Amino acid sequence: MGEQHTNISVRNLTQGKISRELFSLALPLLAISFIQMAYNLVDILWIGRLGSEAVAAVGSVGMLMWMMNSFALISKVSAEITIGQSIGARRLDKASIYASHTTTIAIILGITFGLIFFFFPKPYVSFYQLESDIAFQAEGYLRMISLGLPFVFIGLNFSGIYIGSGRSDIPFYFNALGLVMNIILDPLLIFGIGPFPEMGVKGAALATIISQGVVVALFLYHLKRKSGLFGGFSYLIRPRKSYTVNILKLGLPVAAMNVYFAFINMNLARIASLYGGHLGIMSQTTGGQIEGITWNSSSGFSTALGSFVAQNYAAGKMNRAKSAFRITLILMGILGTIASLAFMGYGEEIFSLFVPEKDAYEAGGKYLFILGISQLFMMLELTTQGMFNGLGRTSPPAIISIVFNTLRIPLAIYLGSRIGVTGVWWAITITSLFKGSILFIWYQFLKRRILKESIIKSS
Question: pTM of the full predicted structure?
């Protein structure tokens, strides 16, 4: 099958000014990342008014949702890469087939995980050894939020399809509308304002489900138009072996890296609860959401860089890819410096905006100070990961992440037993320094070989 035409424009990233093309793709992605972060921060902002115990309950389940988002990367990341490379190679027919395959995988995974955690919330919640009343709130929140897991998987998959097509603006618009709905529904359902019942933490979960359901509905409406992406594609198909294998080959390393990362952080939160009680787990989960300002900024540009590199590498224009990498590194370096200064200088003030209890924001301030030291290296890791992803080499970032994230557990136990809960935060920072440095060095060693492959590909 050869090249097909489509009635809806995809963005050709192999032409035009590099900085303009990169930023036009990255800025909507950055906004999407902040929108996703804002979902959680808005929840915490309102739930924090219920007390630090309610925040701890939601935070413990938030770790699981992080893991579910990581599983969703199997379809999302593979969609970004395969569709981006198919467009770069002028094979829109293959892009359409890949879109159908990733959507099918997303539907299956979302429904499966949703059913598991709806019917069996207790085994997960008991992992943290929370106080009985906090555990009860956590179980109710998990059972409610699990109903929305299919929306999470399908929505992220559709975002990946549009991002791989160079149309990151569409996911931005839809997710922005979802965020507005979440902001409106949160206080209504949590506190029972007007005709709405007072649902507490379950209300925050329901607000998120409704908002994400609307986002998925908007994607479906947009895709069903006569001018739909690639001329339209099926959402649920019988997968073909060759396409499925390639999707798993590309998506599994990234998903495994992030799933394992989430699993490690679940264990770190458990260790924090052992040394610091509910304030320990609250500091890590809420502090992690605040730290998401830099994490999501890096992730947004990393995703944009991956799509940019995928098209240019497939088109044999490796110099454009390398220039985009340098531009992204400079920008992330500036942003990382600003974030570090803010976290280290005003950690308590920032934390108190979300949880106004004195003991809570003092504990959270310590978390932000220690994590502020590693922000530049975290951004270096994610930016280099985007470069590797665009080249279709998703294994090196996964290897580095798995090795050093694994080391966080024994290091946290060792330091925690000597200096208390802050030892857990130091374990995170120390390993982040190594991850960013080593992955960047790894890319430098592979750069010449990759350039030769690009020249051969273009000849």
Answer: 0.70
